[in-house]
Amino acid sequence: MEESPGLARNLAELRQTFRSGKTRGLEWRKAQLRAILKLLDENEDSIFDALQQDLGKHPVEAYRDEVGVLKKSANYALASVEKWMAPKKGQIPLLFFPARAEVLPEPLGLVLILASWNFPISLALDPVIGAISAGNTVVLKPSELSPASSSFLANTIPRYLDSAALKVIEGGHDAAEQLLQQKWDKIFFTGSSRVGRIIMAAAANHLTPVTLELGGKCPTILDSLSISDLEVAIKRIVGGKWGLCSGQACIGIDYVLVEEKFASILVELLKKCIKAFFGDSMPNLKNLCRIVSKSHFDRVSNLLGDPRVAASIVHGGSWDEQNLMIEPTILLDPPLDADIMSEEIFGPLLPIITLNKIEESIEFINLRPKPLAIHAFTKNERFKKKLLSETSSGSITFNDAIVQFVADSLPFGGVGESGIGRYHGKYSFDTFSHEKAVLQRSFYLDLEPRYPPWNDFKLDFIKLAYKFDYLGLLLLLSGLRRIFKRSN
């Protein structure tokens, strides 16, 4: 595909801006972070309108998952970036005395951020916060599946942020393909595993490092609990499944594992909570996002097309194709070989899988690709330790769901097929930085004196010096003294 002249000009300007050193300064970084906060403060209603158009998000959900997340992230970076930028003292062997070492974070250069459609504002600007904090120039491509949000970002960002250091490029597959043909210093992508493979293949052409925030089938484990604890757990499960963009979230709950004897009470409590949160029937649905597009609607509704899967529905199952709405749906023990249990659902369908013993959940999870998150509701400390030591996932949260995503002190990212790399808070800064090792030595105390006696014990001395750091220094000093005495 031929590169457009406009893209070439934009990339040339961004590279020149980075080479100028403008983005490396603390004050520039802080100014851009303040500009993001100002953008969010002054355009809150416009953001709500864009999210309503794209996904039907309620303002409460829009603020919680998009605006509020970004304000928290930008404020945290603003308060911390000076400390993050500072060189860190490095420890070196005393054998090298006198010398000093440090680790210096430096920006990578020009980075490409490919955003997702399900949280089209926060998943676009949150990585930008990390990239700017680290001193990079940025190309941001919003998702074409959220056109109102994409248009908002393209029209609004240049009014607030340094347009010589950050460009927003809109478009569909052709625009993404053209961008992926370019040489970048980093690519950051949020989306599906299928597209993640395409990103990684394109990055390999230039040996470009990537961060891939993907997803997968995130399980929730529900252990035996008291009635009061169970009611709290159910509310958190319902919020973690349907409260995030109607289940269209990479970190959202994909299915629930529970002992068979507790399945019936789980289903009844889920029904009760769904009714309270979202309404009791298709015509009365409220506070629930719609499916993002007709193709995604068809994909999710087709998961119920398998007669064996349809037979497992114990609640919901209705949809409104015209308005792209699917009712919160619960399925009890759908076939494990059906698509609904092999593909990431990314929609408002919740399978419940029953087990004889809850400990069997570990093997169930381990037989599948590593998930982005595991949510486990249990008070059994022994079981918690087994989950921690015997499963692998991007994160694990006990007795809640999703909350780990908004903790700036914790890394967010996957493992295996659920992603590569991590971000949030300091981890975002690190993702868009290179930690450069700096070692400075003196010309004093050369380790290779030109005296014959040195050859007699040089090898033994070096072995001891590497094995015993402090002893190495003492031997060095005493050995040098002996050499100089003999030479005189």
Low-pLDDT stretches: none
Our estimate of the beta-strand percent is 15-25%
Mean pLDDT over the residues = 92
User: Cα distance, first to last residue?
Assistant: 76 Å
Describe the structure.
With 488 residues, the chain is an alpha/beta fold. It is built from 17 helices and 18 strands. The protein has a 7-stranded mixed beta sheet, with helices on both faces. Strands 5-4-3-6-7-17 form a 6-stranded mixed beta sheet, with helices on both faces. It has a 3-stranded antiparallel beta sheet with strand order 1-2-18. Helix 4 packs parallel to helix 5 and helix 9 crosses helix 10. The longest helix is centred in the first third of the chain and has 27 residues. It is globular and about 80 Å long. The termini are far apart.
Topology overview:
Blueprint: H1 5-19, H2 26-42, H3 44-55, H4 59-85, E1 88-90, E2 99-107, E3 110-114, H5 122-133, E4 137-141, H6 147-160, E5 166-168, H7 173-180, E6 186-190, H8 193-204, E7 210-213, E8 219-222, H9 227-242, E9 255-259, H10 263-278, H11 294-303, H12 307-310, E10 313-315, E11 319-320, E12 325-326, E13 329-332, E14 349-355, H13 360-366, E15 373-377, H14 381-390, E16 395-398, E17 419-420, H15 426-431, E18 433-441, H16 453-467, H17 469-487
Parallel strand pairs: 3-4, 3-6, 4-5, 6-7, 8-9, 8-15, 9-14, 13-14, 15-16
Antiparallel strand pairs: 1-2, 2-18, 7-17, 10-13, 11-12
